[in-house]
Structures are given as C-alpha cells and as structure tokens.
Here is the input.
Amino acid sequence: MLSICIVNFNTRELLKNCLQSIYDTSKKINFEIIVVDNHSSDGSVAMIKQDFPRVILIANDENHGYASAVNQGVDQAKGEFILILNSDTEILPDCLSKTLEFMNDNKNAGIVGCRILNPDLTLQRSCRSFPGILNFFSENFFLHDIFSRSRIFGRPFMSYFNYDRLAEVEIVLGAFMMIRKKTIDQIGLMDTQFFMYAEETDWCFRARQAGWKIYFYPDAEIIHYGGGSTKQNFVPMFIEAHKSHHKFIRKYHGPAYLLGVKIILILGVILRICLFSIATLLNLIGFKVTQDPKADLIRYWKTLRWYLIPKQ
Here is the structure.
C-alpha cells in the first residue's frame, strides 16, 4: 500500500483539487490518504468530511508546524511507501504508479522526487544541493544566476541540471517526496525543531548518511501551484526560512560555521535592500523595473531587523 500524507493549513480549494486529482489518476493502485489539518479556519475540515469521507483526517487544535504534522501522518500510515505531498499540488496521470514501480525496481532508493511543473506547465526546479558556505555565498551574491550552468556556483538550485534524465541528487523538493517506510524506520521521523522549511533537507541528509539513495525520477509529473499556506504570512515565513537555515547549519556544522553563514545571509539581505530601494525609486519616477519592489523592500527590511533584534 501507498500512504499519502498531506498537511493542510487554510488551503481548502487547493486541497480539494489535490485530493480529487489523486482519486482521478490513481485507480490502479492501493492507497490511503491521510490529511493532517493544522487548525485551519477556512472550512477545510468540513470540506474533507463532506466530499472525501474515505480520507483519514487528523484535525489539530493548534498549529505545531509542518514537520510535526507530517510525523502525525506517518505515525498513522500503513503503507510500505509513504508520499509526502503538498496540498497545493495536482497529481497528473500515472504519476503515483510510475513512481511506485521505480521504487520497487530500485531497492536502494530511499527517497524519490518527480518532475514538478508550474501551473503554466513550465518546469519548476525541484532538486537542491545541501546548504553550505559556498552555496549561501553563490545564492546571496547572485553567482548562481550569473554562472547558472556552473556546477560550482549553480549548486544551490542545481541550475545546470536539465531535468530530462534520471539522476541521483542530494535534495528533492518537499512538495512531492516518496519515501520508503524502511528508510523512516532507520533514520527516524522529521526533526520537529524545523517549524517549516529545511525539514526535507534534514530528512534527505539523514537518509544519505544512512546509505540510502535519493533520486529525481523524470517520468512522473505533478503540478505545483506553490505557496498555498506560506503566502498567507509571507514575511514571517520568509524569516522562518532563515531560522531553518540556521538550525540546519548548527545541527551539522556547529556554531563557528553558522557564524560565517549568518554573515553571508545578512550581507545578502543588505544587498537586496539597496537594490530594491533603487528599484522603488525608479518606479516612483516612472521607470518600472519590477512589479512590486516596495513589498520586497519591506520584506528584507523586516528580515534585517529580525537579525539585529532576534528576540522580537
């Protein structure tokens, strides 16, 4: 059996579309769906009860974070394979059956990600390399954009990779992660110190340490609408991403390494404040260079303030 675990927070319509896509495209496989709702206020729970009575529903009274909710779902799962799936996704035909077949044929595959598409069906980059000084430096100073085909500077988002072939990778995007139950039994559940972001990075890191392979599998596809929950609290979630970076680096590299990463991240924030300040000024005088630089400027100002006054 495949157990499909979906964490939901106020994404009622996206979740409805996601669940329907699973039932529409996966009639040939034996699966269960577990939805863990993190105290939504948009009628998500009522919708599931009314429209999808077969779904196993866990309705939390408060939001303890994404990793904690995933763990609740995994604890209930009965399948040999578990799919961690975002609520803002749509499963395309044969995606689940093909990924299951690949995992059955490759016993060393601990975690597998599929080809992820944007709503306009363009490619969404879904493979990453593990965070480190070089990756943070490349990302924060735009080297991954300038030298996108470089296997050194393009590592943060694997911008040199064409997503046209099967490949062993370091990280697959948490929007779609099929993981073997044996892998979880060996490496443990998600680390709940990560409220949101980096939990899949940590899981992939632990799986590789334990000897499992992580694969990008191109023959299965989903659509990822993106940001269904995080758009609701964009600035706090952006800061949460920085917090998660810090926690991951501290966990595996220690405080001295973390200090170097923090310096790079702060300089990256300051650089963007300068750039978005210029863009905002240009927009005011009639030269429209980006859609809404003021919103980005506010986001980075608040992030810098959080760095300078971290207890706020």
Observations:
- Residues 255-284 form the longest helix (30 residues).
- Residues 254-308 form one domain.
- The first strand starts at residue 2 and ends at 8.
- The mean pLDDT is 94.
